[in-house]
Amino acid sequence: MSETEVELDGERQSLVLLRAGDSLRAWLNICPHAGRRLDWAPGKFLVDQGRLVCAAHGASFELGAGVCVAGPCRGASLTAVAVAVDAA
Ligand code: FES
Question: Which CDD domains match (predicted)?
Answer without folding.
Answer: Rieske (cd03467)
